[in-house]
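Working notes for the structural subgroup meeting. M.R. asked for a predicted model of this chain before we commit to crystallization trials. I am recording the input and output together here so anyone reviewing the notebook later can reproduce the run.

Input as submitted:
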Amino acid sequence: MANYYSDHPEIGFHLNHPLMQRIVDLKEKNYEDQKKYEDAPVDYADAIENYKQILDITGDVAANIIEPNSESVDLEGPHLENGRMIYASKTFENLDATRKAGLWGISMPRRYGGLNLPNTVFSMLSEVISAADAGFQNIWSLQSCIDTLYEFGSEEQRQKYIPRICAGETMSMDLTEPDAGSDLQRVMLKATYDEKEDCWRLNGVKRFITNGDSDIHLVLARSEEGTKDGRGLSMFIYDKRQGGVDVRHIEHKLGIHGSPTCELTYKNAKAELCGSTRLGLIKYVMALMNGARLGIAAQSVGVEQEAYNEGLAYAKERAQFGEKIINFPAVYDMLARMKAKLDAGRSLLYMTARYVDIYKALEDIQRDRKLDADEKAELKKYTRLADAFTPLAKGMNSEYANQNAYDAISIHGGSGFIMEYKSQRLFRDARIFSIYEGTTQLQVVAAIRYITNGTLLGIIKEMATAEVSPELASLKARVEKLIPVYEDALNYVKELDNQAAHDFLARRLYDMTAELVMSLLILDDATRAPELFAKSANVYVRMTEEDVIGKAAYIKNFKVEDLDSFRAAECPCEA
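Returned structure, recorded in token form:
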């Protein structure tokens, strides 16, 4: 029987990383829960075994329920009835299966009914479910919104809402509006305090809200009258049981059809303030978005895997000119690149997730006691690493998912353009990944300060000091030769001292940075598990070499006055 976890040992490999011991020790707080909860682990080995069992259960549900339902869900999609969103019929089956399997409340402490799993394992579960159906992964993974309520809400709110999510109720984050997409400072949904009822009231419209008719919403709204920027925004909790919010429209999308994208009207809807006023955008949404971006990275890796699977299976069966097409260099080159991107992107995803786990666990401990000096230094270190790596993981994996889905169609040839084949759905689903939760261009903006201030260069140089197996030494030497090429290009951009030029060249620096990081990560993976990753390491380093040298040449031959040519190309009428 198929299993989307155990069929891919590359996923389980990432449970063996040296940082996992520290993550589990922090998350389990010296395994104190074993005294209160029967299912709590007694030590590190027990925790890892528990993670594997949950992953195996999820892999089974994904392969044998969610994936077989995916075509029906894609064709039916959600629909609107009397101001309410109704899921596709098979989506209800998926929700029921994940609830019965106990796959809700993943990250929440056991005292609220959660599983207390680290973000790394949550990301693995997200990848597995996304490979089966990326649209359903959206619905399921939005349970992670509860992390923001846990971090910033009151204990009363935690006890009120977290057990409901652990029992399988759904969530959404209601941020964007018709006139406020990526520019959330322009949010105008109005929040006013109702003194008579001792609650807040929300009025206005939200647009492009994923899973918008969920049970519990986190809502960004303007609480400070007369303000027009982010300082006037606060975060609110809306409970669907209270009423006051209707679905006005469900978007008809290119892909992820099972994931409802709604336009909502708030009409005097009763809500609770989450945290403090004025911190909605500058603190709470930033935390919410970072988690969501890691979720999209995991979603992307799942589709990267499934696209590779589809392309590989077809290439093995399809014959042309008397030979299976997998033996054609043009095809096996494409497949090798798909697999290399998948393995390198997955490694970046899980390294980022591990960094997030350490700093989040330390923050959680800090709620109960003061951290000592070493713990404070560790918190600072891993917060910085997570902030630097998250936009790389989201941006690169979302692009790789698009590329792998595109290549899967190419391998299928004309059949890939036919709706009966899964490749077309993967291609349609993947397209949104590099758009929502911050476009790739916005991931570049988020990462560029860590690039230009030398943070990521320093990380790359430190990573390059790690030993690799003798068989990989020549590949590592090739990566090492690229580092000064990259540094020279970086310095050249900085010396241009022109903001427009910096912005124009930022994407190239971003790509080079991420590819060097992933080359070093995949070399480390291949050292520890050559049977899984040696081939991908060989291919990915060659791809990085090709790309870094090419982009460095582009940058070094760029002049500020060249910007005028590009402006003219965009606006020929002004040339």
